[in-house]
């Protein structure tokens, strides 16, 4: 039995190698950059009220798959459409809690409010990236320059605000003022596996019902980090 299995595996490997050699002239017509991707970002809050400041290190993690659709015969320009998941945290000094009527309330933590170890909100998002892709790759060259720019649409299926400090420990989920749909512009550029990644949110994290000291909270997401593409 072991000899039979070994023979089958050896035969498959041999035939696969032979087929690749015989089809090398035709592979350009089939070449695509279908890719898994993963990355990490440093998360910033844009357009935040002047009282709001970020504390600690806010991170994001994401991964997914992108389908590549070449646009030219050289196949170095393409449209990419994918599906992925992202989780993000934002450490800052704006406390989010719910009053007796279960309505979200926003206030700034100060020295008067007491000391705190953690105050953040976090999100979990299903993402749909759409990219225009340019690269210097070929069917046989896996180390190349790339510039991928595009648009990302996300659906926030879960979020939470968490506080730990002198006021107690509490956590609120599914706050009505969060915008479930998030969208923004993306840019990934680099060489080989390592790529710089940037995301700029075009809409606000919170909707028009959220206010701080009577003014709307128009904060959006800015993310700077690294993107890794895996064939």
From TrEMBL:
The keyword Signal applies. Residues 18-206 form the Outer membrane protein beta-barrel domain. The keyword Signal applies. Residues 1-19 form the signal peptide. It comes from the Bacteria. Keywords: Signal. InterPro entries: Beta-barrel_OMP_2 (IPR025665). Pfam families: OMP_b-brl_2 (PF13568). This is Porin family protein. The lineage of its organism: Bacteria, Pseudomonadati, Bacteroidota, Flavobacteriia, Flavobacteriales.
